[in-house]
Please model this.
Amino acid sequence: MSENPDYTESLVGVFGHPVAENPTCVMQQAAFDHLGLRWRYLTIEVLPGNLEAAMQGLRAMGMQGINLTIPYKVEVLRYLDDISPDARIMGAVNTVRREGDRLIGENTDGKGFIRSLREDANYAIDGRQIIVMGAGGAARAMTVELALAGAARILICNRSPARGEELVRLLNAETPAEAFFIPADEPLTIPKGTDVVINATSIGLYPDVTGIPPVNMASITDAHLVCDVIPNPPNTRFLQEAAARGARTLDGLGMLVYQGAIAFELWTGYPAPVDVMKAALEREFGV
Ligand SMILES: NC(=O)c1ccc[n+]([C@@H]2O[C@H](COP(=O)([O-])OP(=O)(O)OC[C@H]3O[C@@H](n4cnc5c(N)ncnc54)[C@H](OP(=O)(O)O)[C@@H]3O)[C@@H](O)[C@H]2O)c1
Model:
């Protein structure tokens, strides 16, 4: 036995319900192990009504932070000491980090997408017109970050008009971008002047792999960058059909990896081993 053994580990993880199929532990643990860090990522089922107690437990156990997934990204705001400006605009937190005794809320989903745009697609956002299918949590996080990063115009097309119009109001009120709502009454024809088309709905997620968002694919051209949030399978039918029309494409696996990489960096202070994290997820998804 060594002279002064220390068997403790720094703890992070995810609170959610249901959470059993959340694959984040695979990429975070691979990153900790790769760098030889004594950190552990725990996947924790928190039943409805128990989030406050779980957050107290996190404080009591000195955990370094936590990810939040469905249905806790909004409720967690009440149990935090501070919230980053972008997460405050979104009204949602997916990552909590510790600063001494204080718990700070962040949202890395949209930032992960922006980093994937820059690093995987080498794409500059400044001045672009972007159309987003969907107005749920992913769309909200992505559009707020795109608007704060310099996108000029954001068009939101969503099945439920109320949710879409609410996101448009939020973007116009809280960010420098211009935002408009497009009703989803018929398949969306991509308007002139559009640079980027994003599927931010859950259509195409495993096991519904043949699903495709309601877009008039004939209006997609080689002038567009077409992106999908769906990480599993990454090469969705939407991206396959867009590529067949000559568009550049960007899959949702990059966004998933980078949102995790940003959380890793917020927690540990070390640059994330992005390639290791991506390879771990690809193995998990059988890509
Ligand atoms: N790659 C990543 O890192 C990452 C990160 C976060 C989320 N995601 C993925 O993004 C997807 C959306 O997540 P979320 O948190 O935004 O979910 P959410 O809040 O439940 O929103 C779902 C969105 O999809 C739309 N939608 C769902 N089914 C539809 C259908 N059949 N026809 C038309 N629209 C439909 C909804 O429209 P209504 O408003 O009309 O219901 C809403 O806009 C999920 O598949 C998730 O896995 C990926």
Observations:
- The longest helix spans residues 252-268.
- The mean pLDDT is 97.
- The first strand starts at residue 10 and ends at 16.
- The pocket of NAP is lined by residues 109, 112, 134-139, 158-160, 163, 201-203, 205, 229-231, 252, 255-256, 259 (CB under 6 Å).
